[in-house]
């Protein structure tokens, strides 16, 4: 399968079929909290997409070069230090700590960048940006990338396609598509909630209650996309 | 520093229902929706969260006088990430199938708002005993919330509870959607409505829209 | 200013060191157990997957001994498990097959005879199919349909079997044709690739059925 068709499959999968919010349940807190107005939701979606791309770039680099079993940089250091030419490093136990530091740094970087170059935008984002650090969607994207980069001993399957280690293009595609999928879900929800404001929602369900019920119906609708990636990959002549 | 908040016992009881992390504070939604497809996974997750919450609260409380304002969130996050890694490894070693089933949701405990929130609000300002009872109370509340949702989803979706068949085949055809994402959202939304209604009836005022 | 930042960071740095040491200890203690768990996923299935049956009566003739299995890694990183019976006879192979199912990746274990002429069994390691529908590919009802299938012709999925089934027809799971077809496709492809490798190896080493003893390669 060519790189481009693989990237298309990853993008469609992350944005639509396995939507971060409606299928994997990550990013629910901003989904419930920020989805009241469409422009706020759109802004949050953009911010998340931006941060997740930066975080994915950094975390792929770290995972590929330092953390995975047999990674070039850490293996080289280990061999130099222990003077054992056969030693391989496996720093997977430090994965989560590295990822969370990467995410915190990405949020800081993005915040500084936006504050410097788009001050009016920064004013409207305001408190959201630091909040993105605890957004599950970013860590989830990093974990998905990790899953496909540190294949280690889990491979070895026959007749398999796509069991190879992901490079930077695939990782970035997943991150950006996931962010866009999140933005799509949150904007749809904001549009629906703006309409719901005019409706007579029962008091116990006002706010998060009705949002969750509507999200359930949305998830039901998105389930209709199941199996699309299988047909797509067949159409693109790729190995299934 | 003077403890002018609730006593440890009050904090413990608060965590279970009045300030339930899921139903009242609306935190930690991600695992609540993701792992409540069956009771076993839900209880494993609440045990993992309990362990991380208790350890993180304890450590934070012990070093609370050393924390600096700029870096405290970083310190909380570092502590939580370390303990979550430990929990993840222990699960992979001793409960491999369950670890595979829970998948990425165990590391997602790191960004679980409940833990960071409790560290920030309570543990960084209170002595260890108070922090400990707060952590235990919140964990129990979380477990209760997960159990309620998981029971409904598993019984309706698969006819079992903890894997044991509860509904005979003929009584109720397996309502598969309950085990899938839409069922999670709808169950949580419905239960949230029920909890709001009950609490508004008890306090005699119209339900405050918590948004 | 710079001084105070370093001063403030000492707590983060020392905590990092402490936790780093703690995690290293946990990894040293639990790492081997986790690797063992991963291995056992495959090894636990060996006795059930590779069993030679009487083709007429279906009665079990020889069972595999998981402890004697030899792992062979090919040049491009694929893994094949050479399976022996309790009296050291090479009775079959186990290979992992993978591919895309209806809703995600499916990973299988496939048991084969020593010359890869028959599929002896199938076990689902990982799948994300629809619960209660595609999910049933992991149940023994579907898995049993892979006992003793000849590999000369590719296996095909059929929805109903009227009269006698053709030798390479597999009955699909009710309501989950795509998942069943995916499994069949994965089995076919994996077996084809494996047979190529086995033929190449046979012409290099000699007839694999002659090789006895778990100590080979």
Plain-language structure description:
The complex is a heterotrimer of chains A (240), B (211) and C (217). Helix content of chain A is 68%, strand content 0%. Chain A has 11 helices and no strands. The longest helix of chain A is centred in the N-terminal third of the chain and has 30 residues, at 38-67. Chain B is mainly alpha-helical and 211 residues long. Chain B has one domain (8-206). A two-stranded antiparallel ribbon of chain B has the order 1-2. The longest helix of chain B has 31 residues, at 128-158. Chain C has one domain (31-216). Chain C is 36% helix and 28% strand. Chain C has 4 helices and 9 strands; from the N terminus they run ααββββββαβββα. Chain C has helices at 2-43, 46-49, 140-143, 177-205, and strands at 51-53, 60-73, 79-85, 90-100, 105-113, 118-126, 149-150, 156-158, 169-171. At the A-B interface, helix 2, helix 5, helix 8 and helix 10 of A face helix 2, helix 4 and helix 8 of B.
Give the structure's gist in a few sentences:
Chain A has 240 residues and is mainly α. Chain A is built from eleven helices and no strands. In chain C, strands 1-2-3-4-5-6-7 form a seven-stranded antiparallel sheet. Chain C has a two-stranded parallel ribbon with strand order 8-9.
User: Outline of chain A, from the CA principal axes?
Assistant: globular
Q: Please outline the major beta sheet of chain A.
A: none
SS summary, helix count of chain A: 11
SS-derived structural category of chain C = alpha+beta
Number of helices of chain C: 4
Please state roughly what percent of the residues of chain C sit in beta strands, choosing from under 5%, 5-15%, 15-25%, 25-35%, 35-45% or over 45%: 25-35%
Low-pLDDT windows of residues of chain C: 209-213
Number of strands of chain A: 0
Radius of gyration of chain C: 23 Å
Order of helices and strands of chain A: HHHHHHHHHHH
Adjacency order of strands in the biggest sheet of chain C: 1-2-3-4-5-6-7
Largest interface by residue count?
A-B, 47 and 46 residues
Q: What is the C-alpha radius of gyration of chain A, as a whole number of Å? A: 20 Å
């Amino acid at each position: 399968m060519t790189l481009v068709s693989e990237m298309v499959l990853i993008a469609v999968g992350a944005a639509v079929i396995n939507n971060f919010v409606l299928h994997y349940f990550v990013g629910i807190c901003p989904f419930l909290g920020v989805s009241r107005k469409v422009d706020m939701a759109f802004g949050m979606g953009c911010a998340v997409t931006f941060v997740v791309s930066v975080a994915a770039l950094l975390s792929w680099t770290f995972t590929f070069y330092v953390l995975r079993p047999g990674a070039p940089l850490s293996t080289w250091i280990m061999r130099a230090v222990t003077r054992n030419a056969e030693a391989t490093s496996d720093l997977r136990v430090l994965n989560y700590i590295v990822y969370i530091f990467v995410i915190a740094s990405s949020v800081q970087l993005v915040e500084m960048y936006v504050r410097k170059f788009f001050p009016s935008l920064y004013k409207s984002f305001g408190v959201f940006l630091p909040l993105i650090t605890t957004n599950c969607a970013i860590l989830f994207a990093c974990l998905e990338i990790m899953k496909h980069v540190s294949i280690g001993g889990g491979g070895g399957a026959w007749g398999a396609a796509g069991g190879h280690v992901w490079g930077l293009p695939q990782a970035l595609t997943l991150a950006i598509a996931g962010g866009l999928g999140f933005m799509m879900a949150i904007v749809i929800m904001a549009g629906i909630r703006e309409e719901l404001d005019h409706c007579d929602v029962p008091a116990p369900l006002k706010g998060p209650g009705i949002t969750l019920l509507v999200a359930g119906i949305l998830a039901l609708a998105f389930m209709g996309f199941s199996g699309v990636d299988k047909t797509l990959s067949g159409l693109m002549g790729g190995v299934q | 520093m003077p403890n002018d908040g609730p006593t440890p016992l009050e904090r413990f009881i608060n965590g279970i229902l009045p300030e339930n992390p899921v139903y009242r504070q609306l935190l930690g939604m991600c695992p609540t929706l993701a792992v409540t497809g069956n009771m076993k996974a839900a209880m494993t997750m609440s045990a993992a969260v309990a362990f991380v919450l208790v350890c993180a609260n304890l450590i934070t409380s012990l070093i609370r006088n050393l924390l600096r304002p700029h870096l405290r969130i970083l310190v909380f996050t570092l502590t939580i990430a370390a303990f979550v890694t430990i929990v993840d490894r222990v699960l992979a070693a001793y409960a491999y199938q369950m670890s595979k089933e829970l998948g990425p949701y165990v590391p997602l405990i790191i960004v679980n708002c409940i833990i960071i929130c409790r560290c920030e609000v309570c543990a960084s300002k209170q002595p260890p005993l108070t922090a400990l009872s707060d952590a235990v109370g919140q964990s129990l509340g979380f477990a209760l919330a997960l159990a309620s949702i998981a029971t409904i989803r598993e019984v309706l979706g698969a006819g079992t509870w903890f894997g044991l068949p509860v509904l005979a085949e003929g009584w109720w055809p397996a309502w598969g959607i309950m085990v899938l994402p839409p069922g999670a959202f709808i169950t949580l939304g419905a239960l949230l409505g029920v909890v709001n209604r009950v609490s508004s009836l008890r306090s005699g005022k119209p339900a405050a829209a918590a948004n | 200013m710079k001084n105070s930042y370093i001063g403030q960071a000492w707590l983060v740095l020392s905590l990092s060191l402490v936790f780093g040491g703690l995690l290293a200890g946990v990894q040293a203690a639990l790492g081997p157990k986790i690797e063992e768990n991963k291995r056992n996923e495959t090894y636990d299935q060996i006795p059930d997957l590779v069993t030679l049956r009487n083709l007429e009566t279906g009665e079990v003739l020889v069972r595999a001994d998981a402890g004697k299995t030899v792992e062979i890694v090919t040049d491009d990183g694929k893994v094949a498990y050479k399976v022996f019976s309790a009296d050291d006879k090479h009775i079959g192979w186990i290979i992992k097959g993978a591919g895309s199912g209806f809703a995600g990746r499916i990973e299988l274990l496939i048991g084969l005879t020593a010359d890869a002429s028959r599929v002896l069994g199938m076990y689902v390691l990982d799948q994300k199919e629809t619960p209660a529908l595609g999910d049933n590919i992991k149940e023994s009802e579907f898995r049993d349909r892979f006992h003793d299938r000849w590999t000369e012709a590719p296996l095909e999925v059929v929805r109903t079997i009227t009269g006698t089934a053709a030798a390479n027809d597999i009955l699909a799971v009710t309501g989950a044709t795509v998942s069943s077809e995916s499994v069949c496709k994965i089995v076919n492809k994996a077996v084809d690739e494996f047979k190529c490798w086995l033929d190449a190896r046979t012409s290099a080493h000699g007839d694999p059925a002659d090789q006895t003893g778990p100590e080979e390669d």
